[in-house]
C-alpha cells in the first residue's frame, strides 16, 4: 500500500499558491467585474478601469517571471484564474486568457533575451497583447495565410490583413503571423512583434457579436507596415511552430473559460431554483428539477477534470495534445448545454436580459469556434488515436 504522501494528489487538489490566486481572482470577479457585466455587454466594450485593475492584480502576467515584473506563477495558476474570471464574465475571461496563454506564452517560449527584456515587463504591467493568425480566407486552415513579409534592409515590410483579432481595441503589442515566402507553404510562416504605432499598422472594423460582446474582435490592416528584423519572434520560417505550440496550450485556457461559464450558469440556477416557488414549493424540491441540477453539476465536473488534467500534464512536461483537444471540445459542449438548461430552469425569466443566464448561453457558443473549431479538435483527437 502506498503511504499517503506517495499517493498523487487528486486533480482538484490545489497547492496553497493556486488556492490563493483562485480566491483572489474570485473576489476580484465578484466585487469589481460582476457590477459592470451587464453595462459592458450592452456597450460591447470593456471598462477601461477594469483593464488597469487586471494589471494591478498581476493577472496579465501570471507566468512572467518576477525578474520581468510578472507574478512568477505557473500555467495551472493561469488556468484557475481564467476559470474564476469567466465564471462571472467570459469577456474579461478571454481578455486575460489571450494575454497569458497565447501572447505571454509565445514570448516566454520563443523570445530572445533582448525581446524578453524589451517586452515582458510591458506585458506584465501595462500593455495588452493580441494574437493575429486568422485571416478572412484562412481560419481552420490557418497556415494558408496570405499576409506577406518582405525583407528591406534591416526591416521587414508586412502587407495583408488579419481578421477576428481578440483584444485588438485595447492592445499595444500584436503578434502577427506572415509569410516570408508564399511558395514555401507553412515553412515560410514567421512571427513578428508589431507595435500599435508602427508605420502602416491599423486596427479597423470591430465586430458586433452574439456573445463575449465586451471583448473586442477587430480586423487589422498591414499596409507596408515596417517591422525591424529584431522583432522576429523565434526564427524566420518557424512561425508555424510558434503558432502551433501556443495554440496547443491556449486550448486549455479556452477549456477553463468554458468551465467558468458553465459554473456561473450552474450557480445562478442553484440559487434561483431554491427561491422560485410553483405549486406551493421551491422548484428545487421537484425531483425533475433536482435531477437536472445533478446532471449539470456532473457534466461540469467532467469538463473541469479534463481541463485540470491537461494543464497538469503540460506543466509536468508530459504530452498533452490529445487531452487538451478533448478538454476544449468537451468543455465547450458542457458550457453550451449547462447554460441552455439554466435558461430552462429560469423559465421565462431565463430568456430576458434582466437575469444572468441568457448571457452565459450567448457567451458559451464561442467555445466551439475559436482556437480551433470543435471539428478541428475531433480531427486532432482521432489522428492521435489512430496514428
Ligand atoms: C470572437 C472571435 C474571436 C477570435 N479571436 C481570434 C484571435 O484573437 N486571433 C486569431 O488569430 N483568430 C481569432 N479568431 C478566429 C478563429 O480562430 C476562427 O474563426 C476559427 O479558427 C475558425 O475559422 P473560420 O472562422 O475561418 O471557419 P472555417 O475554417 O471556415 O470553418 C467553417 C466550418 O467548417 C468546418 N471545417 C473546416 N475545415 C474542416 C475540416 N478539415 N474537417 C471538418 N470540418 C472542417 C469548421 O469546423 C467549421 O464548422 C476569433 C474568432 C472569433 C469568432
TrEMBL record:
Question: What Pfam families has UniProt attached to this entry?
Answer: Acyl-CoA_dh_1, Acyl-CoA_dh_M, Acyl-CoA_dh_N
Record-annotated Acyl-CoA dehydrogenase/oxidase N-terminal domain positions: 15-126
What reactions does this protein catalyze? Answer: (2S)-2-methylbutanoyl-CoA + oxidized [electron-transfer flavoprotein] + H(+) = (2E)-2-methylbut-2-enoyl-CoA + reduced [electron-transfer flavoprotein]; (2R)-2-methylbutanoyl-CoA + oxidized [electron-transfer flavoprotein] + H(+) = ethylacryloyl-CoA + reduced [electron-transfer flavoprotein]; butanoyl-CoA + oxidized [electron-transfer flavoprotein] + H(+) = (2E)-butenoyl-CoA + reduced [electron-transfer flavoprotein]; 2-methylpropanoyl-CoA + oxidized [electron-transfer flavoprotein] + H(+) = 2-methylpropenoyl-CoA + reduced [electron-transfer flavoprotein]
- Gene3D superfamilies linked to this entry: Acyl-CoA dehydrogenase/oxidase, N-terminal domain (1.10.540.10), Butyryl-CoA Dehydrogenase, subunit A, domain 2 (2.40.110.10), Butyryl-CoA Dehydrogenase, subunit A, domain 3 (1.20.140.10)
Q: Name one GO molecular function term.
A: flavin adenine dinucleotide binding
Domain Acyl-CoA oxidase/dehydrogenase middle stretches: 130-225
Q: What class of enzyme is it?
A: oxidoreductase
What's its EC? 1.3.8.5
Pathway it belongs to? Amino-acid degradation; L-isoleucine degradation; Lipid metabolism; mitochondrial fatty acid beta-oxidation
Task: Note the superkingdom of the native organism.
Answer: Bacteria
Q: Any keyword Cell wall biogenesis/degradation? A: no
Q: Which is a GO BP term held by this UniProt record?
A: fatty acid metabolic process
Q: Where is the Acyl-CoA dehydrogenase/oxidase C-terminal domain?
A: 237-384
Q: Name the cofactor(s) required for activity, per the record.
A: FAD
UniProt keywords (A-Z) are: Acetylation, FAD, Fatty acid metabolism, Flavoprotein, Lipid metabolism, Oxidoreductase, Phosphoprotein, Transit peptide
Q: What protein family does this chain belong to?
A: Belongs to the acyl-CoA dehydrogenase family.
SUBUNIT field: Homotetramer.
Q: What is this protein called?
A: Short/branched chain specific acyl-CoA dehydrogenase, mitochondrial
